[in-house]
Structure formats: structure tokens, C-alpha cells
Amino acid sequence: MTYLRWLRHRFIFLKTLLISLFDAMIYQKQSQFLLHKSNAHRCPYDFILFYNAFGRILFSTKEFIALITNNKVFTKSITIDGFDAEPNHATLYQKGNRHILWPKSPMIQTSSPRISDEYYDKIANSFFLAYHHNLNKHNVNQKDISHEWERITTEFRTIFFDKENKIIKKNIENFRSDPKIYNKIFNDQYPYINSNHNHARNYLTAIDLVTEYHRYGSKINKELLASISESRAGNYLSINYRGKKLSEQLLQNMVVANDIIQNVPFSTERRNKVLDIGAGFGGSARILSYYTPNTTHILLDLPETLFLTAYYLKYNFPNKKIAVLEDIYAHLDRFNEIIEKYDFIIIPPFVLEYIEAESMDLVMNAASLAFMSQAYLEYYLKEINRVLKENGYFYSLNTTEDSQWGIGSHRWNYQANYLTLMYNFDNRFAYPQWLGKKVNNAL
After folding, report:
1. Predicted confidence band at 131 (pLDDT cuts at 50, 70, 90)?
2. What is the pTM of this model?
3. Are 16 and 40 in contact (CB under 8 A)?
4. Residue 369 near residue 278 (C-beta atoms within 8 A)
5. Which residue blocks in 162-302 are alpha helix, DSSP H?
6. C-alpha of 368 from chain center
7. Which residues, at least 6 apart from 176, have a Cβ–Cβ distance to it below 8 Å?
8. Is residue 70 pLDDT above 70, yes or no?
9. What's the sign of the alpha-carbon dihedral 229, 168, 368, 285?
10. For residue 209, which of 229, 239, 173 has the smallest C-alpha distance?
């Protein structure tokens, strides 16, 4: 009897070893868990399991077979907005299950907030306030702006304002769903679901995106990966996987947010102040805000971009305090006091000079400083040095080399000493991710 019991235990032990070996073949290290000693149960919770290279090949093959056989061999695990029935997230998250993160991440939206007409008017008024302001007071002539920014400026004005300069609300509310709008704005930087393409073509794009999502599991902690979800703002057409919405741009924003969350020690005793130069419509700021309480995020970009930023943030955070230019224009000389009152402050470039010297804890820029003209680049580097606190942090994701669009970071005159705290190379642009701490120039 003793021998039989020992043999039974050996069989279970062998089964455990075989399952561990298979898990090591298909899962990344952070998704390999201890197995139960008596029955060798594998981790059944999909949302914390991420495939390694071999696992991604198997996953892609399975999804491809499911696609071409119309679910007859395998069942597809992805759905696509505009082609498949979108999951009802309100129903899906009434209780947890093994396929979705529970409790629900606040990034997963189960309803669409209504934005008031008054807020749309405020966005438009802020645009024209910025547009008519004298940008030349910086001694940086507006004609020196990069050609790409100039193109974006022209496209924004054409798409979002009519001939009477009235805001076209429909285009704002659909700016991420209409391929004609999205492609003109972003110059097709990110692959996205295109309603003009057939389901098979979009599904192949979706497979590639999900495998990329799994690949990031080797660089990003599994809890952050399980929590992120694309915003519905702009009627974005995304792919649905594991109870959340995914996009390639979301993954890029996640890289930026993760670098900062993991490496910048935000204070819990006072209000933190973050300046995002070239913030776009606020994708990185949206993720960061969940992990950086008691922080004011100041988002700086072209006036034509900022009303999209204002719409996007209001959609995602209807109850947070968001300031656009109309709210602060009469009080710019007291900008340091204004910071304490808002969660987000959305500013055009000329407001930068009103930010108090050595007041920012973090300045960040992703893929825009290296695409500016020499005059604009020098101006921003000087201002970054001015507003950043001693021992404050500067984060950059930019190319190191010159291009037809601008000056690479290997030729930047930083005008300050920075102690490098992080240097990575883990993003879709293949630009280095760098984080430096500003230290005394006398050192």
C-alpha cells in the first residue's frame, strides 16, 4: 500500500513537471505560477497570462485557423468594433469571471458621458483665444514651426470648423472613428480598425495587435497590462479582448506611463505638477492620472489640437476639474495658484512663460521635440530647464538622429545637467526612452 501511494504521488509529481514544462514553453516568466502539489491545477485566470514568443506563434496560428474556418476548428477570442457585436461591458462586469480582470478597472467604460453644449462652446472659445494671441512674444516666429505641425494645423482647422468658424461637433465626437479624419490628423501613424476594409483584413490586424499586447508582458507588469483599456472617446473603433478595448496607440501610451510610474517617486504629501509638452489628445495623461493622485497634469500642444484634448479628457473624467484657456486667460499672472485648483490644465505654447521657475516635478515629451524646427526646439529646451525643479525629472521618447522633420536628441543642448535614471528601447517607434534627474549645474 505504501508503494502504491508513493507511485501515485510520483505520477502527480510527473504531471506537475510536464505542465510546468509546457507553461515554460508558452508563457512569459511572470505568467508561470506554482502548481498545486496534489492535482497540478494550472492558473485559470486569463487576464494575468501572457504568452512568450512561442506562445504568440501558437496564439496567432489558432486565431488564423478560427478566422478562415469561421470558428469551426477553434473559436475566435477577439471581436472588432463595427463588424462584430460589441460586448456589453455593463453586463459583462456585473460579476467577475476567469476571463476578465475583477474588480473592473476604472479605465473600462461601461457608459458614454454626455458633454454639455456649454463645454463645447468653451473649447471653441479657448481655441480662438489662443489663435489670436500674439505668439511672436516668445521671439520664436510662427513660420519656424515644423512642416508636419503646420500640416496638422491646417487639417484640424478644415475638419473641425466650418466656414463661419463654428465648431463641427459631429467631427469631434467621431474624430477617432472616421478614417478620413483619423488618417489626416495622424498621418496613419497607428494601425486602426478601418470600416472601409473587410472583416478578414481587420481581424488580421487585430491578431497582430493582440500578439503585441502579449509581447509587452515581458516589459510591463501584468497588473497594468490587465488594467488598461482604450477610451471610447471619439467613437473609437477598437478590438475587444479579455473584456477590454485595445489599440496600438494605447500600448504606446502605456509604455510612457509605465516608465514614469515605475521610476518617478510622486509625493503623497503635496500636489505634484507634471508638464506634458506635445501631449496630443491626452492618451498618456489619461493613464498616468489613475496612478498619480494629487497631481496636476498640464498638457501643452498646438491650439488646434487642444480642443480635442479638452473633449477627450472631459469624456474620460467628467467629474475632474479641467481648465481650458478660457478658464485661466484672465488669471495667467497667478498661474502658480491656478495649478492647485485643477486636475488638468490644457494650455497653448504661449502660456508656458507664465509657469513659475523651478515649479514642475516632471516634464515629459513623447515623439515631438525631435520633430520641431531649431528655433522651437531651443525655446522648449530652455523653458524645460527653467520650469523644472532641482532634482525634478525630464522624460523623453524621441529619436536621437536628425531627419527631414527636425533635430535628433544627440544634438540637443539640454542647458542643464541630467543624471540618467532610465534608458530603455522598448517601444514601437524604436526611439530610446530616457529619464533624467536635473542636478545642480555646479556639480
Report:
1. confident
2. 0.91
3. yes
4. yes
5. 169-173, 179-186, 199-215, 222-227, 248-263, 283-291
6. 15
7. 182, 192, 233, 234, 235, 236, 237
8. yes
9. negative
10. 239
